[in-house]
């Protein structure tokens, strides 16, 4: 997508599109003069101008991203329900005069959505290419409705049916998050691409599962846990109602040969003032450029040539998130508050406060992602999270009340740092580093890896922290601090800067094997000859 053709873009000098060094070693790829002009136009428009011109694209991206809210809701509602007395009564067994959920079943209940998410993300690569980005969201909505229905109707002590419902709903969660990233990257103009892709993480954080469980958990009937399940229906139903009016990705339409439909969508997204013809030509020429590099677009192609490097970056951002201890710190924030001496109710309320602070951090990212770039924010976020994790480990050596208060305070600090950096930036980077040709599949692989490592960490951390196991408590900060430090070094050498780079520019940078540290400064020379 490109910005409005204005005076700034008209002032692009020939020196910016001259020279042939970067393209003469390869055969001609369509009209590279158009790509140069389109890139100059995109670079000229500011985020504020983009919001005014492309407010429809911005609004539709936020709408499609709403499906990501269910990802966050499902991940938190599972842990919350384990503390609801009627849930333990209906799905546990009576031991020593109290209802207890089997540890093995708890592990299955917490991880089955991740297993479904892995399968859903993988299938998204095919579904999205077959039905389009909008069609893939519709499929995810239908799957989600069925999965939620099974959970809602599960009778007491039918634990298998409840797990089946969680598994099916997990399929939709993987599709929702993958679809959101692809859609935002292809519908947003360059100036808004970082903001809209970062809002995927914002929607994940904006779930209200803790508040819902707080409101229903004291009920003594089955609706103490059925109502939290049922409220999930709001979002797939709302998406299904709005999807017929949502624009399809023009990139997908062009690949399907629906050129007139793509032109109409581009005009609709940007209004009558934009140069729809140039934007359409940019998409066509970029697709031609990518087709010249690789003729097919299968999952195996994500691991061939330069696409392997792009896939590694797209998946590693989520490995780094898990390695930076997000599950350890945020998942056990309430536990740390209780250790600090807060009553259970107050600890729970503080947990809700931690979520609110995370939302504020996400909103700040809307500014920092364009002001400071992806690579620098991600790197400094990793470095700062490393520091906080190590501090939690060192402070935990002391068992004083002041030390416990300090650890509790650092969980709040950590959440703010995480949600202003590596949390939302992971969703920006993984959507931007993939080629347009393989975006749906690369994004799907990113979510697959995210689900896999999230599941592994969720299983391992309780064994490290719980008093009846390793009982390391805050000392786990040393483990994740070491992992985060290693990840910080990896970030410096391998995470590229994708800010202010169009799709075709990123293609060239990866094809030329430009080091990640030089992505922001490397000058791309374009041929200005009519034949090219």
Largest sheet: 2 strands, antiparallel
Could you give the order of strands across the largest sheet?
Answer: 1-2
Overall average pLDDT: 84
- Helix/strand order: HHHHHHHEEHHHHHHHHHHHHHHHHHHH
Number of domains: 2
Strand tally is 2
CATH class of the largest domain: Mainly Alpha
CATH superfamily label of the largest domain? MFS general substrate transporter like domains
The N- to C-terminal Cα distance equals 21 Å
Can you tell me the CATH topology of the largest domain? Answer: Growth Hormone, Chain: A
Tally of helical runs: 26
**Overall form:** globular
The percent of residues in helical segments reads over 70%
Strand content: under 5%
CATH architecture of the largest domain: Up-down Bundle
Radius of gyration equals 24 Å
**Based on helices, strands and strand pairing, what is the structural class?**
mainly alpha
Q: Segments where pLDDT lies below 50 for 5+ residues?
A: 1-30, 527-532
Oligomer type: single chain
Keywords: Membrane, Transmembrane, Transmembrane helix, Transport
Membrane topology: Multi-pass membrane protein
Family: Belongs to the major facilitator superfamily. Sugar transporter (TC 2.A.1.1) family.
Subcellular location: Membrane
Outline of this structure?
With 532 residues, this protein is mainly alpha-helical. The chain is built from 26 helices and two strands.
């Amino acid at each position: 997508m490109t910005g409005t053709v204005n005076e700034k873009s008209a002032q692009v000098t020939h020196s910016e599109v001259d020279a042939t060094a970067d393209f003469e070693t390869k055969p001609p790829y369509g009209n590279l003069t158009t790509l140069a002009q389109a890139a100059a136009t995109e670079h000229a428009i500011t985020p504020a101008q983009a919001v005014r011109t492309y407010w429809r694209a911005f609004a539709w991206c936020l709408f499609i991203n709403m499906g990501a809210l269910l990802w966050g809701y499902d991940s938190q509602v599972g842990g919350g329900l384990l503390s609801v007395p009627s849930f333990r009564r209906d799905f546990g067994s009576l031991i020593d005069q109290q209802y207890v959920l089997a540890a093995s079943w708890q592990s299955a209940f917490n991880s089955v959505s991740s297993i479904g998410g892995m399968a859903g993300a993988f299938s998204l690569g095919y579904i999205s290419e077959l039905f389009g980005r909008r069609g893939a969201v519709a499929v995810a909505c239908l799957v989600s409705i069925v999965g939620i229905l099974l959970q809602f109707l599960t009778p007491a002590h039918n634990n298998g049916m409840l797990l089946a419902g969680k598994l099916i709903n997990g399929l939709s969660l993987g599709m929702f998050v993958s679809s959101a990233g692809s859609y935002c990257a292809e519908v947003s103009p360059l100036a808004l691409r970082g903001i809209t892709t970062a809002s995927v993480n914002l929607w994940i954080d904006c779930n209200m599962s803790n508040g819902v469980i707080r409101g229903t958990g004291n009920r003594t009937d089955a609706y103490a846990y059925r109502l939290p399940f049922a409220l999930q229906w709001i979002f797939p139903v709302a998406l299904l109602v709005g999807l017929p009016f949502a624009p399809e990705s023009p990139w997908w339409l062009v690949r399907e040969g629906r050129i007139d439909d793509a032109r109409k969508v581009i005009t609709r997204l940007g209004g009558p003032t934009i140069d729809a013809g140039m934007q359409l030509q940019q998409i066509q020429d970029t697709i031609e450029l990518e087709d010249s590099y690789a003729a097919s677009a299968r999952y195996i192609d994500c691991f061939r040539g330069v696409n392997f490097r792009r896939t590694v970056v797209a998946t590693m951002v989520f490995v780094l998130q898990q390695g930076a201890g997000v599950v350890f710190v945020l998942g056990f924030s309430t536990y740390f508050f209780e250790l600090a001496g807060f009553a259970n109710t107050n600890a729970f309320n503080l947990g809700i406060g931690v979520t609110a602070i995370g939302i504020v951090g996400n909103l700040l990212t809307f500014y920092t992602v364009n002001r400071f770039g992806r690579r620098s924010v991600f790197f400094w976020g990793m470095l700062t999270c490393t520091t906080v994790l190590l501090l939690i480990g060192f402070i935990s050596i002391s068992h004083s009340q002041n030390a416990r208060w300090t650890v509790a305070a650092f969980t709040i600090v950590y959440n703010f740092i995480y949600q202003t950096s590596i949390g939302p930036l992971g969703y920006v980077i993984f959507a931007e580093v993939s080629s347009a040709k393989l975006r749906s599949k690369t994004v799907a692989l990113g979510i697959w890896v995210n689900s896999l490592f999230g599941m592994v960490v969720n299983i391992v951390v309780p064994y490290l922290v719980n008093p009846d196991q390793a009982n390391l408590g805050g000392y786990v900060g040393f483990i994740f601090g070491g992992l985060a430090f290693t990840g910080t070094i990896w970030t410096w050498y391998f995470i590229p800067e994708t800010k202010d780079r169009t799709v075709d520019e990123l293609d060239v940078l990866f094809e030329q094997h430009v080091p990640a540290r030089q992505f922001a400064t490397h000058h791309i020379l374009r041929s200005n000859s009519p034949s090219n």
